[in-house]
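Weekly structure sync, notes
Attendees: PL (lead), two postdocs, one rotation student
Agenda item 3: pending single-chain targets
PL asked that the sequence for the first pending target be pasted directly into the notes so everyone works from the same version. It is reproduced below exactly as submitted, 181 residues in total.
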Amino acid sequence: MFAGHLGDAGGIREALAGHMHEPMFPVPLDVMKARLSFTDFRAGETLDSGRGAGRAPRRSITPNGATAYRVEHGGRSVCYVTDTEHVPGRPDENVLGLIAGADLVIYDSTYTDDELPAKVGWGHSTWQEGLRLVRRAGARRLVVFHHDPDHDDEAMAGIEHELAGSSDGGIVAREGMQLEL
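Predicted structure, written out during the meeting:
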């Protein structure tokens, strides 16, 4: 397990172990029979998963300091940017640096630009900001995900329709969706 934002809180092992003790859970982490490995890193470091795919994590703007990732393999790149909250009118330079030229950007798009002002501090962004960042960074394709639970199918269809009219190849993620680069 890897974590890039828990070092100052004792690390990923401590975070998980803290949830697995009385009164919340009766079995401590040390009893698990699985071989567990815990790796804490700092945002900005390049990691090697041992499978030839590098991860270049970056710190996101969020109340709890989430980490965004870029995975590169075989000349392709995918970025995963979740739990990030943008400041309207100010592109997140960390995210721009991470997604520059990426083939696919999976971006936290919980809200719309119209909904965001009522959700400041909740740690999420908008599909419109994802689109702006992808265009500015010269990335190829946007996948919006991390949908607001209050958005029903009709709302999601509306977002998908707007996205299709605004972008080449931008899509709304769905359960079970598989994409090939």
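Discussion points:
- Residues 9 and 99 are 27 Å apart (CA to CA).
- The first helix runs from residue 12 to 19.
Action: rotation student to compare against the earlier draft before next sync.
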